[in-house]
Amino acid sequence: MQNRIKQQLRDIELQHQITILYACESGSRAWGFPSPNSDYDVRFIYVHPRNKYLSIDDPAAQLTFPINDELDFHGWDLKKTLQLIRKSNTTPFEWLQSPIIYQQHPAISASLWALCQHYFNARGNIYHYLGIAKSALQTGDGLQIGIKKLFYVLRPLLSAKWCLEKQQIAPMAIAPLMALLPKQLQDNINTLIKYKSTVEESYSIDIEPLILDFIDQTASELNTKVQLIDEVRFDSKLLDDFFLNVLTSETTK
Prior knowledge:
- With 253 residues, the chain is of the alpha+beta class.
- It contains 11 helices and 7 strands.
- Helix 5 (106-116) runs antiparallel to helix 11.
- The longest helix has 20 residues, at 147-166.
- The two termini are 31 Å apart.
């Protein structure tokens, strides 16, 4: 599958006349809790030839493709990515940490990740993760929930808890996030991860009382404490400099 993904990325570059700076897995495979039928969520950051940015028409800011045989490709232009980093958007923060990388210009991806550290807004990140967890919980049926949806509650809550307690960008994968939990909860969630690897994503389970208590207590605590955190606004100087450096490099000729 890796070879197939890499070939499709090369085909996208040729078809759309772009350079892919970074391509990774984003989704349950990268988060550390895949199911047997999990899609391959391939996400990439690309750049157009520099003259495209000097045209009166803006170049394509994103590229989306139909899901084909469990392959889901979606990409963002570098300029759009930098605009989202300025807003402290969690998505580029996560992509740039992915443990599964299909293609990259290492110096550029490392510089992008370093830039992200200057644009972390704890309040915005916590609200984002709380929103994901809330949406996933609304699809449950009382104490029963799809196992995929349960992890769409647990990982965001842990990510929000990390942002609050560490005042840092949260890790993408669930394993380091679980360091925030007592051992019994870690063991219970690890058991669920192993079980998820054997069943379809739509499979429903009962939420264990210990996990349900964690969800309720953590969501309540986060919703209270996030309101006490000041909003942060960022300027674009570092991002503008980075964008200009990439456009004047050999990458975009």
